[in-house]
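Notes from hallway chat w/ T.B., transcribed later so I don't forget. T.B. wanted the structure written out for a chain they're using in a teaching module, and asked if we could keep both sequence and structure tokens in one place. Agreed to drop them here.
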Amino acid sequence: MEKPTLSSPSNYAPMMEKFGYNQVLQVGNRIDISGQGGWDKDMNFTYKSLEEEIDQAFQNVEYVLNSVGSSWKDVYSVKSYHIPLGDEAVELFPKMFKKYLGDRKPIWSCVGVSQLGEKEMHVEIVVTAIKE
């Protein structure tokens, strides 16, 4: 079995310091990333709509995957957590899948929750990728 490797993009250092965790677990060609929210590159929440927040979270997934030589093209599993889980979020995710994954259709679990890691968050996305 290959040895697990933990890592994070360098600009995630404040989050690592605050919460004490890494963003990426890689074992061989499998990559699991921790939950990504709709924060900007400076870790601020600047979205104006739920669609902007979800799109930024998708961008953050891409950024974290890129940090280990992967991308959305390698994603097979998506879990999303929502406050609240309503029709708008459920309708936006397939739109974002098309934008970021093209014709690939990953498995997806979509869960409504009462709270996420930051009070400004309405969505959090966790993915598993397999680098080919």
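Follow-up for T.B.: The longest strand covers residues 75-82. Might be a good example for the class.
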